[in-house]
Amino acid sequence: MTFDFDTPVNRRGTDSAKWNVPPTELPMWVADMDFKTAPAVEEAILRRAAEGVFGYTTFPDAWYDAYIGWWRDRHDFSIEREWLGFAVGVIPAISTAVRVLSEPGDRVAMLTPIYSAFPAIVEGNGRRTAEVPMIRSSENGRPVYRIDWDALEAALAAADTPLMIFCSPQNPTGQIWDRETMAKIGELCRAHGVTVLSDEIHSDIVMPGKRCLPFAAASGTNLALTATFLSPTKAFNIMGLKTAAVCAADPDLRKKILSCLGDLAGANVFAAPAAIAAFTEGAEWLDAVCGYIFENKARVDGFLASELPEIVSTPSEATYLMWLDVGKITEDSGKFHEYLRQEAGLYVCPGSWYRGDGARFLRLNAACPRSLLEDGLDRLRTGVRRYESERGIRV
Length: 395
What we know:
It is globular and about 60 Å long. It has two domains: 26-37 and 283-389, Aspartate Aminotransferase, domain 1 (Alpha-Beta Complex), CATH 3.90.1150.10; 42-281, Aspartate Aminotransferase, domain 2 (3-Layer(aba) Sandwich). With 395 residues, the chain is an alpha/beta fold. The protein has helices at 39-50, 61-75, 90-101, 117-124, 149-157, 179-191, 220-225, 233-236, 251-258, 271-281, 283-307, 333-344, 370-391, and strands at 26-27, 84-87, 107-112, 128-133, 135-139, 142-146, 163-167, 195-199, 226-230, 244-248, 312-313, 321-325, 346-347, 349-350, 361-365. Strands 2-10-9-8-7-3-4 form a seven-stranded mixed beta sheet, with helices on both faces. Strands 11-12-15-14 form a four-stranded antiparallel beta sheet.
C-alpha cells in the first residue's frame, strides 16, 4: 500500500497544541507528527464513533493480545497478560509510580540530557533529581554519548535513591541502547536496590532495519526490577487519545503501581480500539512513516553539512527528533531559541529544557511533510546567519 506523507495537513485553527502559534511561525518543537495516523487506526475510531453511545468501557482480550503480539514480534520482548495494566498516558503513569515507590525528599536517578517532563515529574512530586550527565565524545569522527559509570553508580548507591527513570530510546538524543549497556545498568540497580521506570514510548520510530530492545528485555535481572511504560501514541500520532500501558513482571511492583493509578486507569472509548488497530493492522504504515522520517533526518544532516556546518547533528537511530549542537554559535540555547522564533519564525525546543549539556543544543522535530521541512531549514539558515551577523560571530 502507498501512503501519502507529502501532502501537508492544515492543523491551524484545530486546537492543536503544536500549531497554536502565530500564522508567521512554523512549529517544529513538541513531539507530535504532522502526518495523519494509520488508516486502520482512523477506521477503528470511526467505527466506534458510529455506535453513538460513549459510556464506560472495558478492555477486551484483543487489547492484551495486541500489546503482547506487537512487543514480541517487533521488540523481542515476551509479555504475559497479567503483567499489563492500562493507563491514560506514560507521563501520568510514571508520575504515579514516582509517588508510590519513593518518599518525599528521595532522589530519582536519570541520565541527562533527558526528556524535560521527567525532572518536572520528580520535582513536582516533592522528590529530587539525581542527574548523571552523559559524556559527549567523538567516535570515528561522529559525536556520541557515553555513560559515566562511576557517576551513575555513585547516584544509585545513595541510600535516598530508590528509583531510576530510564528513557529507551533516549530522548532527546535518539540513541538506541545496546543490550550490554542496559544489562550493566540493571546489575547496578539490583546491587543498590533501585527500581527502574523505563519509558519506551518512542521505541517504534526507528531507522529502517533497526530494532529497539526494551530495557526490561535486556536480562532477567532487568525484567525483575523494571516497570515498563508502553504506548502506540508516538508511533501512530494519537497522543490525544490518551492510551498507554504499564508492564511489570514483578507482582508486588505491578500491584503497587496499578492499584494507585485510580482514575488514571479509566479509558476513553477510543483508547482500546485505536491501540488494537495500531498494533494489529498498522505495521505497514509504521514502516513507511519510519522510512520517510529517516529520509527527512538525512536531508537535515545534508543541509547542515553544506549550508550550516557550524551546527552538528547528533547521529541517531531512533525517534523523529534531532539533537543539534549549536555550541559554535551560542552556549545559551534558551535565548537562541527565542531569537529564532522572533526573527525567523522557527519554533524549535531549546536544549536547556533537557538539562545535562543541553544549553548548547536545539531539539528539532523532523516528522513533517518534506515541504514543511524545507521551509524549516530555510528559516534556520536565515535565523542563524542573521544572529551571527548581528553578533560578529565568525565560524
